[in-house]
Design brief:
Elements: E1 5-9, H1 13-25, E2 29-33, H2 36-49, E3 54-58, E4 60-61, E5 64-65, H3 66-76, E6 81-85, H4 90-98, E7 103-106, H5 111-133, E8 134-137, E9 140-143, E10 148-151, E11 154-156, H6 160-170, E12 176-178, H7 179-186, H8 196-210, E13 217-221, E14 225-230
Parallel strand pairs: 1-2, 1-3, 3-6, 6-7
Antiparallel strand pairs: 4-5, 8-9, 9-10, 10-11, 12-14, 13-14
Modified residues (4-aspartylphosphate): 58
Keywords: DNA-binding, Phosphoprotein, Transcription, Transcription regulation
DNA-binding region: 132-230
């Protein structure tokens, strides 16, 4: 996490500098904005030069409401937000979380507690990103970025179409995908027109590579299509 870049938006200069120093001692790269307008400038430039990993945001700022600003950010950016505020009323905390806050710290606070909250929020986001890039199910590890599949720790070879079919199925768990849906998704939308027999062959080949006595993964719904059952027993 020591490569993470954090933006502090806080009009209390002494507080902001103190937090900045402690974050930098923990290995973070830190910038300070003293108002919403300045923060918007940093965030706009940041989309071109590398995304901030976290925003520490004061609720009460000279040129606006931090909670309203958080809603604006959430409309276009996926970035963790920790609110700093002098308010500790339940309704204020609820408003903060509804605006998209990942955590909420009331002033005055122990900077070491803030550091622990920062690490915890970043870990949650990193875990979510890692899960989005890959899937572990049964004895399979499916990597959506590298287009690879491991079974019991060993790489298995799938054709591009087999991989597309696998992804379509595993990203719709429990849903019956009709033959027509799969044909249109995997072939017809690319103007590669094939018949249902070809789909049957591809499903059979995919099953032969990923299924075994322990895990079936794909269940045939006769007369309709296929359903991904994951590690359930078929």
């Amino acid at each position: 996490m020591n490569q993470c870049k954090i933006l502090i938006t806080e009009d209390d200069t002494v507080l902001a500098e103190g937090v900045k120093i402690n974050l930098e001692l923990s290995g973070f790269s830190v910038l300070i904005a003293h108002n919403i307008e300045e923060a918007k400038g940093y965030l706009t430039r940041d989309t071109q030069s590398g995304q901030f990993s976290l925003l520490i945001l004061d609720v009460n700022l000279p040129d606006g409401d931090g909670i309203r600003f958080a809603r604006e950010i959430r409309a276009s950016l996926s970035i963790p937000i920790i609110f700093l505020t002098a308010k500790d009323m339940d309704e204020d905390m609820i408003a903060g979380f509804q605006a998209g806050a990942d955590d909420y710290i009331t002033k005055p606070f122990n900077v070491q507690v803030l550091l622990q909250r920062v690490h915890a929020v970043l870990r949650r986001y990193q875990t979510a990103e890692d899960e989005a890039k890959s899937m572990k199910v049964g004895n399979l590890v499916i990597d959506f970025e590298s287009y690879t599949v491991e079974k019991n720790g060993k790489m298995i070879s799938l054709t591009p179409t087999e991989f597309k079919l696998l992804v379509k199925l595993c990203q719709n768990p429990g849903t019956v995908l009709t033959r027509q849906v799969l044909l249109e998704e995997l072939w017809d939308k690319d103007e590669n027109y094939v018949d249902e027999h070809t789909l049957t062959i591809f499903v059979s080949r995919l099953r032969g590579k990923i299924s075994d006595e322990e895990f079936t993964y794909i269940k045939t719904v006769y007369g309709t299509g296929y359903r991904w059952i994951g590690a359930e027993k078929g």
